[in-house]
Write a structure and sequence with these properties.
- By secondary structure, the chain is of the alpha/beta class.
- It has two domains: 5-80 and 156-243, 3-Layer(aba) Sandwich (Rossmann fold), CATH 3.40.50; 91-154, no CATH class.
- The chain contains eight helices and ten strands.
- It has helices spanning 45-52, 74-79, 96-106, 111-125, 140-151, 170-185, 220-226, 232-243, and strands at 5-16, 19-30, 34-39, 60-65, 68-69, 81-84, 158-162, 189-194, 205-210, 213-218.
- The strands form two sheets. A six-stranded mixed beta sheet has the order 6-7-8-3-9-10, sandwiched between helices. Strands 2-1-4-5 form a four-stranded antiparallel beta sheet.
- Strand 9 and strand 10 (213-218) form a beta hairpin.
- It is globular and about 50 Å long.
- GO terms for molecular function: ATP binding.
- Residues 7-236 form the ABC transporter domain.
- This is ABC transporter ATP-binding protein.
């Protein structure tokens, strides 16, 4: 890629006893890229992401994220990224405003900055009448969109999204991807895991994990041409069969 790399991974490995969950991953992600990390449930996607965001130590290998080594400077990594887990990551018993205020404080923002960002976020999502609603009362799709916006409060260089559209309807999935594109156009790098193979089409490049290993990595167009199929789902099925 021509873009400056903001994530560099070399032989990243994670083992649990005799089980290898992530096996010698090597790849790079460019600044402002929408990078898809695809694979079936249990392929190792979440385990790999936890190492990249500094909350799980690699067994072997190296990774540099936002200019910092994940093993020796995990706290600096966390300060320069946003993260949204596959399980909803805000507090259901707080209102939308209260969640924004709480996480703004966690990120070290000033009170005035939190107020300004809170208003901008609520206006941008069209949630003015719902700002004082408990987050737990929101439909799942709205919860996910609020969580994504909150993860961007501190202007991170990279945002990691772990299965962000799981369980939401197709219209909300499309709206969520529109939000992803908007941030990528602003220069934010998006690292997204998903088991929805059709979402690979929305990414600049995708890696496909099978049984802890990256079995393919390229643009969706190139992968479909390489495997002579018309969809990313068929690419994945071919790769899975080859491994089996």
């Amino acid at each position: 890629m021509n873009k400056e790399n903001i994530i560099t991974v070399k032989n990243l490995t994670k083992t649990f006893g005799d089980f290898t969950a992530v096996d010698k991953l090597t790849f790079e992600v460019g600044k402002g890229e929408v990078f898809g990390f695809l694979g079936a449930n249990g392929a190792g996607k979440t385990t790999a992401m936890k190492m990249l965001i500094g909350i799980s130590k690699p067994t072997q290998g190296h990774a540099n994220v936002a200019g910092f080594d994940v093993l020796t400077h995990a706290e600096q990594v966390k300060m320069n990224i946003g993260y949204m887990s596959q399980r909803f990551s805000l507090y259901n018993d707080l209102t939308i405003k209260e969640n924004i205020t709480f996480f703004g404080g966690i990120y070290g923002l000033t009170a005035s900055t939190i107020r300004a960002k809170s208003k901008a976020l609520i206006d941008e999502l069209g949630l003015g009448k719902m700002a004082d609603f408990l987050v737990g009362s929101l439909p799942l799709g709205w919860k996910q969109k609020v969580a994504f916006s909150v993860a961007l409060l501190h202007n991170p260089k990279i945002i990691f999204l772990d299965e962000p559209t799981g369980g939401v309807d197709p219209i909300t999935r499309r709206q969520f991807w529109e939000m992803i594109y908007r941030e990528a156009n602003r220069g934010v790098t998006i690292f997204v895991t998903t088991h929805y193979m059709d979402e690979a089409e929305y990414c600049d490049r995708v890696s496909i994990m099978v049984a802890g290993k990256i079995e393919a990595l390229d643009t969706p167009k190139n992968l479909k041409e390489q495997y002579q199929v018309d969809s990313m789902n068929k690419v994945f099925l071919k790769l899975a069969r080859n491994v089996d």
